[in-house]
Amino acid sequence: MISTLPNGLRIVTENMPGLQSASIGLWVQAGGRHERPEQNGIAHFLEHMAFKGTTRRTSLQIAEEIEDVGGYINAYTSKEMTAYYARCLTADVPLALDVIADIVLNPVFDPKEIETERHVILQEIGQALDTPDDIIFDWLQEVSYPDQPFGRTILGPAERVGSFTRQDFVDFVGAHYGPDQIILSASGGVNHEAIVHQAREIFGALKPVGANTMPRAHFVGGERHVVKKLEQVHFAMSLEAPGFRDPDVYAAQVYAMAMGGGMSSRLFQKIREERGLCYSIFAQAGAYEDTGSITLYAGTSKEEISDLTQLTVDELKRAADDMSEAEVARARAQLKAGLLMGLESPSNRAERNARMLSVWGRVPDPVEAVSRIDAVSMQDVRAFAAKLVGSRSALALYGPIGKAKGLEAIRDRLAA
Q: Using an 8 Å Cβ cutoff, are 67 and 88 in contact?
C-alpha cells in the first residue's frame, strides 16, 4: 500500500502474512550523485554521523533501544540514495520508526563526534585502498564517468573527508533531507494505517525542500592502470548498458547472467574451468535511473593476463553469434529464482519497494518483472550482445600489469 503526506513524504508498506518480524526504514533520495565536487563523500559521512547522537538520544542509547528488543539497525549510502533501516519484531515497529526518524531528523553533529568519525572513515578509505578487488571498481567507475558526480566514489577522497565541518552537514541536510525526498518503506508484519498515523505525527509538520538536482550521467569510457607489487593482476572492464527505464534492461540482465553469473556461465567455464586462468571471474549488469553498465572482473597472474583478456573479449564477441537457447533459459531461471527467493526477506522487500517507488512512482508486482524476464528471447540476447561490443568501454588494471592489454587493444579486438 502507498500513501503520500501533504508535504510529499511517501509511505509504502507490504504486509507479509505469517511473519512476526518486520523491516522498516527511511530511504532518502540523496546519495553520491547529489554531491557537488567539493562535497564528495559527505552523503556517506552524514550517514555515519546519524548514529553519533541526536537531541533525544546518545549514540549508546540509539544502539541500546533497538538491541534491547532484539532488533538490528544499520544504514548505507549508494549513488542515488541513503538508507537508514531496522529489523525488529512486529510489536517493536513503532519503536524502530521512532529511532530511525530521530537519527535522520535530529542529529546533533557534535564536533568531537565529527572528529572521531572522520578518523573512522579515513580508516575505511585506507581499507578500501588495501583491497584490490574493491578499489578497482571505484577506479573503473571514475574512468567510465569522468568528471561527473556519478563517477566519484561514495567514500570520497581523504582530503575532502578531512575538511568537512559541522556546517557542511547542516547545509547538506537542509538541501536534501526534506520530506518530499524521503520514502518510508516497511515490509513484514506491518500495519499500513498504523505506520501512516505515526509518520504523520513525526513528519507531518516538515516543509518540503523541492526537487534534488541530479546531473544526467554520461558514460564516456577510459582506462586507469595502477602498478603495484601484488600476487595477481586485477582486471575490471565495463561497457555501456541500459538504465532502469530502457526496455533493453532485462536483456542486459539475462546476458550478464549467461556470460558470468554462475559456475555454468560462459566466462567461468571457458576461462576458469577449461583453461584454469583464474580463480574468480564474473559479469554483472548494473542499472540506474539514466545509465547502466555491464561489468566484468577477473584476477589472474601477470603471465596469464594477456590470454585472459583476449579470451574474455572473444567470448563477448562470440555471444552475438552463438548464444544458445539453453544458456538463455538457464539465465532466465537464475534471475527469476534470485528475485523471488530474495523477496522472501522483509528487508529485501522494503528496499525493493522504496527503490521502485523512487524510480517508477509505483511498485510493480514481482510477477511483472518475472514476465519481462520470461519475454527475453535468445534473439534478444544475441542482439544485445552485438550492440554491446560496439558500445563505449572502460578498463581498470591493478597489480603487476606489464603484460596486460590496454583499452585500445581491447577495442580493436572487439571491432575486428
A: no
Please give the C-alpha separations between residue 356 and each of 138, 150, 234, in angstroms, as whole numbers.
25, 20, 34
Could you identify the residue written with the cell 508484519? 189
pTM of structure: 0.91
Instruction: Write phi, then psi, for 260 (nearest 5 degrees).
Output: -155, 35
CA distance 316 to 323: 10
**What's the rounded Cα separation, in Å, for the pair 139 and 10?**
35
Catalytic residue among 14, 35, 47, 142: 47
- Reply yes or no on whether the pLDDT at 265 is more than 90: yes
Active site residue 47: yes
Q: What is the pLDDT of residue 213?
A: 73
pLDDT band at 130; cut points 50, 70, 90: confident
Average pLDDT over residues 48-60: 94
Per-residue pLDDT for 322 more than 80?
A: yes
Average pLDDT, the chain: 94
